[in-house]
């Protein structure tokens, strides 16, 4: 329960729009230099799981007749016969899949197959069409094949980007292999160095932005197909469309289309009014010692800025000064379907609601000056004010951290660690730690 006066202060949103209407340098432009010039490890910019070099125009892989990606073999359409008595995919998709420059990333349910490299890094297991078992390419009831993107630019010897030929364009796909097919033909999936786990567990271990973006897109698309097999309007089966980017009801009297849902969520680093302490919380499902920025989903009828205020108040009982908020960065987080929008802001000063002891402060003695914390146990297991020096040393300099849910912390990390570099939370925390006094 939070005092009504705090709610009124928190909801008095003023001065936000002007910060977004002015063209300014990206707020993270300085971060790489700042983190590179200190003992704090750098973080990816932009945030992980996106790659602007991936082209999203799927016109060349969509069936020519605009129909379903899978169709009865020998179906008479503008797209023609599959011709090989085979897998039921449209010839347009088959032609692209069979190119020597196409790569397919295998999934089985939510698990992706990867190579574990020397040193611990991972990269996706890329297969060619010929590497795939025909049983994997059956029909839309058992199999999903989604196009992920295309790269048509290469780095020249002189560092300039050069357009390459059509035959050299790299197309990427993801396939969700039916569990029934894994036992029939799985030689390529059990080779030395191959393992599988949910994508989120590998994010911090990938060194390639392209690989991270491909796996994230694949995870979101394949999850969409697994959960939308039937029409929400009439209950009939749906079929895959547009190279795996949509589904449509197969009932001719309905034909309702559905696209992947993206849930907007805010993630925010809220600091003390003085800027030297950050409010970090932990979820009881996380590995021991993990503390992170607060986050929450936007509700119908509210702005993202209002969501920051509401979620911080609901989860930790801390009122946010709306005028202090500023957008930092966004990040796709398709686990399974979120878009994280990152903010930084400061807590509002409420003289009647200050901490009266140091129990809610990690490495500090600011009782009487920091806003009181009132944790909602339905939202968080714990929330504390952490000093900038404490987070710098224990979270960034001497702690590797992790975003994986299966992370096994060592003794020190079990006391405190922050999310790994794959998370927008890590970027927000790093930006704060490497900022000047009072920020």
Return the average pLDDT rounded to an integer. Answer: 82
Q: Report the C-alpha radius of gyration, rounded.
A: 24 Å
The description of the largest β-sheet is: 7 strands, mixed
Which residues sit in consecutive blocks of at least 5 with pLDDT less than 50? 1-30, 75-87, 155-161
How would you describe the shape?
Answer: globular
Give a count of the beta strands, DSSP E runs of length 2 or more: 18
Report the order of strands and helices. Answer: HHHHEEEEEEEHEHEEEEEEHEEEEHH
The proportion of residues forming helix, as a percent range, comes to 10-25%
User: Count of helical segments?
Assistant: 9
- The fraction of residues in strands falls at 15-25%
Distance between the termini: 29 Å
Question: How does the helix and strand content classify structurally?
Answer: alpha+beta
Summarize the structure in words:
With 439 residues, this protein is an alpha+beta fold. The chain has helices at 4-10, 17-21, 31-36, 91-97, 179-182, 209-227, 304-316, 388-397, 424-433, and strands at residues 102-108, 111-116, 122-124, 144-151, 153-155, 161-163, 170-176, 194-198, 238-241, 246-249, 257-258, 263-271, 277-282, 294-297, 326-333, 338-346, 361-362, 382-387. The strands form four sheets. Strands 12, 13, 14, 15, 16, 17 and 18 form a seven-stranded mixed beta sheet that branches. Strands 1, 2, 3, 4, 7 and 8 form a six-stranded mixed beta sheet that branches. The longest helix is centred in the middle third of the chain and has 19 residues, at 209-227. The protein is globular and about 70 Å long. The chain starts with a helix and ends in a 6-residue tail after the last helix.
